[in-house]
Amino acid sequence: MSIAAINEQLLRAIGVGVALLDADDFSFRFQNDTFVDWFAPQPEQDTLPKLLPEFDAKELREQLLAKKRFTAELNFRKKRRTMIFAADFTLTTEAEGAFIVLVCQNISRIREMESMIDSYSMMVERNTREIKREKEQVEKLLLNMMPRSVYEEFKTFGVVTPKLYDPVSVLMLDFVGFTEMAASADPSVTVSELNDIYSAFDRIGEQFGCERIKTIGDAYITVAGLPDPTPDHSRAVANTALRFIRYLDRRNQGHPNQWRCRIGIASGSVVGSVVGIQKYVYDIFGPAVNLASRLQECSEAMEITINGPVKDALNEQFLIESGGTRKIRGFDDQDIYKIRDSRKGVL
């Protein structure tokens, strides 16, 4: 076997297509079997530009004259399939003249694999974005149900340890005549207005550092002093309560439905924890919650009723009037007080 035949077998074994081109006119002088199998040149396709009309022969010539070598990626359509080749052109000068050695490797499979990897990567990225978006929605929902620090504990450990907070100030709000309104008005209008009002309350409470705990129908409960203790929790809920009433006053001036509330504020201890197994909810329990509820019942429409400890904390900052002594269910007789909106001490 001749050296040329051995070289030809080696070239076939490694799957490399080789062609020898005349440097002057790019006509084929030699093509190995692999090259012929891939490109199947017809007699009239006796030059590279005729075989590959879209190939830039001008650039090839310029690069070879400048650098003696040029690499490119060739696309060749064979039947219905487009094949991709990595082509390496090398200019060589022999006694017979100048020639170009063209070495091709079929990289179609590599490109297909790269395309599949890109497709999978895009799918993974899309799924990752969807998972992240769903996670953010769940986080947003849970943060709407519990304070952030409680959520962080729940996320880390899966449970929330009940904690005693003492003292805190609890605000309990209830709307006057809501039952009659709900029974007589369009339910969608009532719920829509209630949602607007509660959203405004949330924004006001957040402004003063209050944490809305829950709403029960027309009852709204917010608290200051938990989960992070704050020395001015009474002032925070008092300012919040006054802003609630101001908001309703302004709103009632432009709406047919008149929303009027009663508010009770009490300071004391509460226990905060997540309750429930399948439907989690963060809730607070304790004397301050019960007393705020009872004090709310002592209020007239658009009035704020507080107990003694709250009054002592606010006495120098708000206009407070005595409401007398009342028998509070579940508690001893209590001296109650009313906060009047003098705008003194309001942030």
Automatic annotation (TrEMBL):
Record has Transmembrane helix as a keyword: yes
InterPro entries: A/G_cyclase (IPR001054), Cyclic_nucleotide_synthase (IPR050401), Nucleotide_cyclase (IPR029787)
Gene3D superfamilies reported in the protein's UniProt record: Nucleotide cyclase
SUPFAM superfamilies reported in the protein's UniProt record: Nucleotide cyclase
Keyword field: Lyase, Membrane, Nucleotide-binding, Transmembrane, Transmembrane helix
Places the protein is found: Membrane
Major site of localization recorded for this protein: membrane
KW Transmembrane (keyword) present: yes
Residue stretches making up the Guanylate cyclase domain: 169-296
Cited PANTHER family: GUANYLATE CYCLASE (PTHR11920:SF335), GUANYLYL CYCLASE (PTHR11920)
Protein name (record): Adenylate/guanylate cyclase domain-containing protein
